[in-house]
């Protein structure tokens, strides 16, 4: 006997099912949840008992999936599962029925292995459905399969990049730089400032200090970023700059424990005569104070190489002393070019080109040529020359040279070289 008469379209069976579902939805919208639930159940009985024509099976399966979702929202979970199972039988090629069972069982923390098998089937039918990978990832997480979960979330993100929940779950399982960078790019598009700050701080704590500038721009008044910058200044013996930063923090928050602790640390060193500092701290201090000759003498007495001493003299702009130190080096012309980078870049390039034409296997020469190309905004040349230098000698890139790049766009590359 028909459930409801008068609807149009499709076979009588399909018309009847659609009509009753429409009535149940209206009841649900009106707040008559129990009546709607009973009517949905009635449809399930009818669909079970009646013959479904082959041409209507796909349409009926879609309706049954919707009924299952409605019953789940009405907390009639067992019947919701029944509805999804019926949909699978009517149209096994519809991934939503398999997906819906997996999602519901996972949300109820029931039959997780069966939930996983349904999701695996949905994956076979529609491997490009991000929801399939997302729920599979959640199941793997619950089963303690962290790597499988990460891969599933990554597959979901490759299909749908901006899913907030998947990004958050993927981040929670990841600690490697690549994953954090991916999450960072996602966060930059949104408004979750708290999470953005967290990722910046995590990257910086991992040694990715190049992100400090970005973090400062995004959070100009954040005391945590300021104290991290001050700590980096202290590590580089830049006590005066560190003190200025910390005083700025304390101006807004006089009770900031970290800022006060770092200032106390600076004061301890400030009170010590420069002669009492260890050589690695004393040499930069001497250079900053204009006492370059003393710094060079200390470096010599501390056993530093002539090349190290050359760069100390260079940083103190004592160019004559710098050239005197390396005057007997076989590749003196290259060091002369490094000095001339500061004074006469065109002359440096001219003399270096002559040298390289004869000495093509000098890694340092190619490194300096790379810097010159960078200064001239020749990105391709800068990269090619740098590659040449590293192929000849992977250890040629001293930090003093890396810091001379001004326009090099691949900052990650330079950062890795510094390590």
State the gist of this model.
The chain has 419 residues and is mainly alpha-helical. The chain has 25 helices and no strands.
Percent helix: over 70%
Radius of gyration: 34 Å
| Overall average residue pLDDT | 86
Query: What's the shape?
Result: elongated
Q: Report the strand count.
A: 0
- Rounded to the nearest angstrom, the distance between the terminal CA atoms is 79 Å
Give the biggest beta sheet: none
Strand content: under 5%
Q: Which structural class best describes the helix and strand composition?
A: mainly alpha
Give the low-confidence spans. Answer: 1-8
Give helix and strand order, one letter per element, not per position. Answer: HHHHHHHHHHHHHHHHHHHHHHHHH
Count of helical segments? 25
Structure description:
With 419 residues, the chain is an all-alpha fold. The protein has a domain at 329-419. Helix content is 73%, strand content 0%. The chain has 25 helices and no strands. Helix 18 (306-315) packs antiparallel against helix 19 (319-325). It starts with 11 loop residues before the first helix and ends with a helix. The model is unreliable at 1-8 (pLDDT under 50).
